[in-house]
Amino acid sequence: ALGKGSDLEKAFATAALVYNNSADPKGKLSKAETKSLLQTQFGGFIQGQENKPKYQEIISALDEESENKIDFEDFMILLVSLTLMSDLLQEIKNVKTTK
């Protein structure tokens, strides 16, 4: 659908597609499914974050009341939060590309 979209548009479309492929018919994920999806699809960003308090807070929230479900908006907030605290983000910021 976004064959001619920008890199950023494609990135967000991919995030939406990955989420939708895992979500239930109502468009939601259980917290346990969310945790699993983050671990399998976002491992590069969460690797090495286990000892950070904010990471532990996010994962604890997913472990508690795991029957509660989250929607796409909440999922994207998790992605952004995990990205901002990631060591990988710092590495990415240090890369300069030219076109």
From TrEMBL:
Protein's organism: Balaeniceps rex (Shoebill)
InterPro entries, alphabetized: EF-hand-dom_pair, EF_hand_dom, S-100_dom, S100_Ca-bd_sub
Residue ranges of domain EF-hand in the record: 50-85
Name of the protein described by the UniProt record: SNTAN protein
Entries under SUPFAM superfamilies matching the protein: EF-hand
GO molecular function, one term: calcium ion binding
Gene: Sntn
Coiled coil ranges: none
Gene3D superfamilies to which the protein is assigned, alphabetical: EF-hand
